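Structure record:
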Amino acid sequence: MIQIAIILGSTRPGRRVEDVARWVAETAGRHSAVKAGEAVLELVDIADYDLPLLDEPAPAIFGSYQNAHTKRWAATIDRFDAFVFVTPEYNSAIPGALKNAIDYLYAEWNDKAAGIVSYGVFGGTRAAEQLRQTMGELKIADVHAHVAINPYHDFDFTDSEAGVCVPGERQETALNTMLDEVLAWSQALRVLREPAASAGSRPGPA
């Protein structure tokens, strides 16, 4: 079974990330692999971890975490095989809180697949591009398919000033395509995440 974290990438009061992530979880929950029990989804909100500005004395690549909040965050991320990052675009970039949360860890991100759901006036595409650069450094395989949410087209402002995220069929198709790629890459990378188990499952010489 593939464990996928839907990561809420903003901590700002009044944020829309909860609404967008809710749509992602509900839509992804109808994906055939999820319905068949081949994949499971979990919302992971960085706001729940109260991570201060990076305060670990050693670079994350050494894995010598000193602080309780880092160890808790590391234990959470380590459980997953893949990620869907849900991020707004702030000034042509991802939120500082998301970059901070990512920078806390290293090995826990390695050899896993990820997709991006971005949102903003221009669909959050510039934030997505910045996030792709960061994922490359962490040995995360970010998939090509991308969901770009535009508030003008994908939110309903009828009953709420903040709006409700209600993307149409086109965005649902894009999300399912992204999930197909995330699942395929996650399966392919299993040999790197679990080398002993993968080696044990191969047939021996004839």
User: Anything to note?
Assistant: Residues 2-201 form a domain with the Rossmann fold fold (CATH 3.40.50.360). The chain has one domain: 2-201. The beta strands are 2-8, 39-45, 82-88, 112-119, 140-149, 155-156, 164-165.
